C-alpha cells in the first residue's frame, strides 16, 4: 500500500484556529475531539462529543450534542511566562495529523517574551482500539537555560455549547492522590458521563490538586536543565450511561480500573494498538490514485479518515451527524446526508455498518409514525433532523434578521419529505449489495412499507392524477412547490420497491398491494420534455432567472440571502444545490445520457452550490455524461469544501456529507462503479490527470479489488463464487484475478470529450 498522506497545518494563525481544530479533529465513532491546542485561545472553540449524547437545555432551545468537559487544555508556565503563540515569537512550527495512526503531532520552538527559547512537543490520539481512551503527551525542552515549568491540567466542566450548559457536576474526586475523576449528569437527569484522567509527571516534580468552579485541576511543577525534556503524559477514560456495560453504582470504580490498565500499558503501546486498527481500516477501504496532483490522494485520505472518525459502530441507536463528531454545527443532528452521501461508502467497505445505519432509522420508526399521524398522514414520516429520540429536532426558527428582530422559520421539517424516500432508497441499495435476507425480514421491509404508506397517504388526487403538493425538494431555495421531480420520482421508486420486496419475500398484504398499484399507476412523475429537460417542479420554468456569477463566486456562504429575501429567491430560478441533477444521480438507469447532459447544462448555471452536497454530485453526473474534464473540475472543487483556503470553511465542524461525496466522486464518477437494477456496472472515465485508481470493495459477500488505468482494469475476486460485472455493454464473470483491456469494451474517447458507447 502506498504511504498514507498527512494533513499539515502550515503555520499557526489565530484566524484558522477553528478550521484546523475541525480538519485535524480526532474521532473513533464513539468520541470526537476537536484539535484545539493545549493552550487556550479566546477565539478557539474547544470540543469533545460523545455519539448520541444529546440534551436540550430548555424548552426554547433545540436538542444538541453536548460539549463535554475539557480534558486537553493545559496552562503552561515557563519561567513565569504563560505559553501562548500570540505573545513572543514562533521560531519553528509544525503540526501534522498522521492519517496512518490518527496521531496529531505538534512541534513549536517558541521565543518567549523573556528572551528564552523553548521547544514544545505535543502528541495526542483518540484510541481506535479502545473507544473510551484519549492519550496526550507534552514534552517541554528549554533550549537556552534551565527552566521552571508548571503545567496545570485536569477536567474542566466550564465547557458549554456556545454558553448553554448541559451538565450538573455530581461528583469530583482525586483517588489515591493520582487519579482525577469528574461525574456529570445532564440537567434533565437522563444521561451521565464519567471522566477519569491521570497525568504521569517527572518523579522530581511536585503536584497538587484543586477543585474549584467546575474545574478539577492538577498543578505540576518542576525545574529542568537546558536541553532536557519535562514531559507529562495524560491518559483519560470517558464512559457514559449510553454504554451497554454502564452501571451507575460501579462506573466510578470500573472506569478508574480501566484507566489504570491503560496507564500501565503506556502511550506508545496504546498508540500502536490503535494504529493497528487504523491499518486494517485503510487496507479495507483506501482508494489509491496516481495523479498529477498529489492533493487528490490527500483529499481521499482526508475524507476516509473522517468517515472513520464520524461513524458510530458501537451502538445502532446512534447515526452520523451532519458534522460528524467534530463540532456543534447543526447541533449534531442527523439528516438525509447519512443515507445518501455516507452510507454508500460503508456499504462497499464494511456493509455491516450500512446495516447499522439503517437500523438507526428502524429503531426510530415510532417517532416517524408519530410525526406522520400528527400531520394526519399514515406510515412513517422521518424527522428532517434527527437525534436520539427519533422525534423531529429541526429548530423552528433559523437565523435572526437583526434589522427586524424577526426570526426566519425553517420549513424543512414541514415539507422537505424526500428524506423518507431516501431512506427507502438506501434500504434497497443495502439489499442489492448484500442480499441480506435476514435484515429485510426483520427490518428492511418494515422500513420500506412504512415509508411507502406515507407517500400513498401524502398524495392528493387532482382530477384522477396523484400529485405531491407543498414540497421542498433537495434544493432548499425553492420551497412549497407542487410535484418536485426529485420527490415524486423517489416516492414512486419507494412504493415500487416496497411492493417488489413484499412479492420477493412472499409477504401477503392485499390492501397495501392494491393501494401501491393505484399509486404507481396514477402518481404524476415529471418526465423529460422534447429537449430532454425535466421540470424541477410545476412552476420552476415559469420563474425568471438572474445572473448568479457573484453568488457562485461566494458559494457556500448563502450570500444571496443578504441581497434577497427567501420569498424573493423562491420566485426565481435559483438552486441552492443539485435537485434534478441529484435525481439523475439517484436513479441512473432511468435517464439517458442525453437527458442527464441536458439537465446538467440547464440547472448547473442556475445552481449556486451553497450546500456542500452539490458539487461532487455534479461531478459524478458530468463523468457519467462522458465529460471527465468537467467532472474533475467539480470534484476538485468538492475536495476543497473543507480543505480549501477559506479560513472559516468548517469552523463549526466538518461537512460530513462532503467527505462521503469525495469518495462517491472518485468511485462512482471516475472509476465508474455503480449498481443498476441489482447489477454491478463498471464504466471507467478516469480524468486525464490520473494514471491509475484502485480500490477494495465488497459486493454480495465477495471481497473484490480493482485497479484501473486508462488502458485496462485488473479485477481480483476473493471468494468462492464468480462475480458478474457489466463492462460497458458486455458482461464478464470473474473469480481470482483477471485483467481486461478497456478497448475491448469501450469505444475510444472522441475529440468532443464524450465516450461513445459508455452507458450512462
Ligand atoms: C442542505 C441539506 C443538508 C443539510 C445538512 C443543508 O444546507 O441544504 O441538503 O441535508 O445542509 O448537511
Bound molecules: beta-D-glucopyranose
CATH topology description of the domain at 6-283: Beta-galactosidase, Chain A, domain 5
For the residues shown, what is the average pLDDT?
A: 96
What is the strand content?
25-35%
Strand count, sense and closure of the main sheet?
9 strands, antiparallel
User: What is the CATH superfamily label of the domain at 6-283?
Assistant: Glycoside hydrolase, family 65, N-terminal domain
The largest beta-sheet arranges its strands as 1-9-10-11-12-19-16-15-14
- Poorly predicted runs are 750-760
Shape: globular
Structural class, from helix and strand content? Answer: alpha+beta
Q: How many β-strands, per DSSP?
A: 32
- Percent in helix: 25-40%
Q: Give the N-terminus to C-terminus distance in angstroms.
A: 31 Å
Task: Write down the Rg.
Answer: 27 Å
Count of DSSP-assigned helices: 20
CATH class of the domain at 6-283: Mainly Beta
Tell me which CATH architecture of the domain at 6-283 applies here.
Distorted Sandwich
Protein name: Glycoside hydrolase family 65 protein
Domain Glycoside hydrolase family 65 C-terminal: 675-734
Active site: 476 (proton donor)
Domain Glycoside hydrolase family 65 N-terminal: 9-241
